[in-house]
Amino acid sequence: MSEENVVYIGNKPVMNYVLAVVTQMNGGVSEVMLKARGRAISRAVDVAEIVRNKFIPEVQLGSIEISTEEIQNAEGSNSNVSAIEIQLNK
Fold first, then answer.
1. Distances in Å between the alpha carbon of 30 and those of 26, 67, 90?
2. pLDDT surpassing 90 at residue 51
Protein backbone atom coordinates (compact mmCIF):
# COMPACT_ATOMS: atom_id res chain seq x y z
CA MET A 1 0.00 0.00 0.00
CA SER A 2 1.45 3.35 -1.00
CA GLU A 3 1.63 6.27 1.39
CA GLU A 4 -0.93 8.37 -0.54
CA ASN A 5 -3.63 5.77 0.12
CA VAL A 6 -3.37 6.40 3.88
CA VAL A 7 -5.70 8.81 5.69
CA TYR A 8 -4.40 9.86 9.10
CA ILE A 9 -7.27 10.64 11.47
CA GLY A 10 -6.76 13.58 13.83
CA ASN A 11 -8.88 16.29 15.42
CA LYS A 12 -10.70 17.64 12.36
CA PRO A 13 -14.43 17.03 11.91
CA VAL A 14 -15.37 13.51 10.80
CA MET A 15 -16.74 14.68 7.44
CA ASN A 16 -13.32 16.04 6.42
CA TYR A 17 -11.91 12.52 6.59
CA VAL A 18 -14.99 10.97 4.96
CA LEU A 19 -14.53 13.39 2.06
CA ALA A 20 -10.84 12.44 1.77
CA VAL A 21 -11.70 8.71 1.57
CA VAL A 22 -14.59 9.20 -0.88
CA THR A 23 -12.41 11.45 -3.09
CA GLN A 24 -9.66 8.83 -3.24
CA MET A 25 -12.06 5.98 -3.98
CA ASN A 26 -13.86 7.97 -6.69
CA GLY A 27 -10.41 8.72 -8.15
CA GLY A 28 -9.87 5.03 -8.85
CA VAL A 29 -8.08 3.88 -5.70
CA SER A 30 -9.35 0.44 -4.67
CA GLU A 31 -8.15 0.46 -1.07
CA VAL A 32 -7.64 3.14 1.57
CA MET A 33 -6.07 2.71 5.01
CA LEU A 34 -7.37 4.76 7.95
CA LYS A 35 -4.82 5.26 10.74
CA ALA A 36 -5.55 6.78 14.14
CA ARG A 37 -4.12 6.93 17.65
CA GLY A 38 -5.55 7.61 21.07
CA ARG A 39 -8.79 9.57 21.20
CA ALA A 40 -9.01 9.69 17.40
CA ILE A 41 -9.69 5.93 17.24
CA SER A 42 -13.44 6.40 17.65
CA ARG A 43 -13.36 9.05 14.92
CA ALA A 44 -11.65 6.55 12.57
CA VAL A 45 -14.40 4.00 13.23
CA ASP A 46 -17.01 6.70 12.54
CA VAL A 47 -15.31 7.57 9.23
CA ALA A 48 -15.29 3.92 8.13
CA GLU A 49 -18.95 3.43 9.01
CA ILE A 50 -20.13 6.67 7.36
CA VAL A 51 -18.25 5.84 4.15
CA ARG A 52 -19.74 2.32 4.11
CA ASN A 53 -23.31 3.21 5.08
CA LYS A 54 -23.94 6.58 3.42
CA PHE A 55 -21.53 7.21 0.55
CA ILE A 56 -20.06 4.06 -1.02
CA PRO A 57 -22.11 0.98 -0.03
CA GLU A 58 -19.87 -1.43 -1.96
CA VAL A 59 -16.89 -0.67 0.31
CA GLN A 60 -15.82 -3.67 2.39
CA LEU A 61 -13.83 -3.70 5.60
CA GLY A 62 -10.41 -5.27 5.10
CA SER A 63 -7.99 -5.97 7.90
CA ILE A 64 -8.25 -4.12 11.20
CA GLU A 65 -4.99 -3.93 13.16
CA ILE A 66 -4.72 -2.68 16.72
CA SER A 67 -1.48 -1.92 18.50
CA THR A 68 0.16 0.09 21.25
CA GLU A 69 2.77 2.71 20.50
CA GLU A 70 5.18 4.08 23.08
CA ILE A 71 5.52 7.87 22.90
CA GLN A 72 7.97 10.08 24.76
CA ASN A 73 6.18 13.09 26.20
CA ALA A 74 7.53 16.55 27.04
CA GLU A 75 8.76 15.54 30.49
CA GLY A 76 10.90 12.80 28.99
CA SER A 77 8.84 9.89 30.33
CA ASN A 78 7.21 7.31 28.09
CA SER A 79 3.48 6.75 27.78
CA ASN A 80 1.57 4.13 25.83
CA VAL A 81 -0.95 5.17 23.18
CA SER A 82 -3.35 2.80 21.46
CA ALA A 83 -3.41 2.81 17.67
CA ILE A 84 -5.68 1.36 14.99
CA GLU A 85 -5.43 0.76 11.25
CA ILE A 86 -8.65 0.10 9.31
CA GLN A 87 -8.42 -1.05 5.72
CA LEU A 88 -11.30 -0.19 3.37
CA ASN A 89 -11.56 -2.10 0.06
CA LYS A 90 -13.74 -1.27 -2.91
1. 9, 25, 5
2. yes
